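hiii, so i know i said id send this last week but things got crazy w the move. better late than never?? heres the sequnce for the chain we talked about at the cafe, plus the structure i predicted for it. fair warning i was half asleep when i ran it
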Amino acid sequence: MKDGNMIFEQINTFFELRAKKFALICFCVFSVAVICVGAARSFSEKSADREILNALNGSFENAQIAVQIRGAVNAEGVYDLPRGSRVRDAVDAAGGFSEDADKDSVNLAERLIDGEEIVIPSFGKALKSMDGKVNINTATLHELTSLPGVGDATAQKIISYREKHGAFTSITQLKNIKGLGGKNFDALKDLVSLD
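okay and structure toks below
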């Protein structure tokens, strides 16, 4: 009987060792499968994200903006340009500068926004337009202070801005000057002109 118990214990030990190895192998195979499925899913999601980003970038690059350009150019009008275009691109679309254009007062590198109006100044223009608006590209300190809410300091900021950046090509550029945003801009926008 002792021999029978011993044989039974040996068989039991043999199967216990095999069962542990089998369980370990099953665990490893299951773990590898889970990792592979997770990696495949992650790769699939990243590929889908990449495709969406590429589609968005493509549509962004192909997007057009419309800008109006007038003043000292050869062909005033509204032009459709690629998003990210600069003032120089609008001037080129309008057939280039006219002979009387004040080229040095224009920031050709300024990025355009959809719906913007660009006015290219010419030499010798009157300081006030025909409708009595103050031309912010040529007005003196005294003329600028005639605008509501514009004192000597703000008028000097306007002059300094156009000396540093060239002529204003859009009235909205006044917002770049400290103190002329929000309500102050709203009070001025209909009283000023670019030519």
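btw Residues 2-62 form the longest helix (61 residues). thought thatd interest u
miss u guys!!
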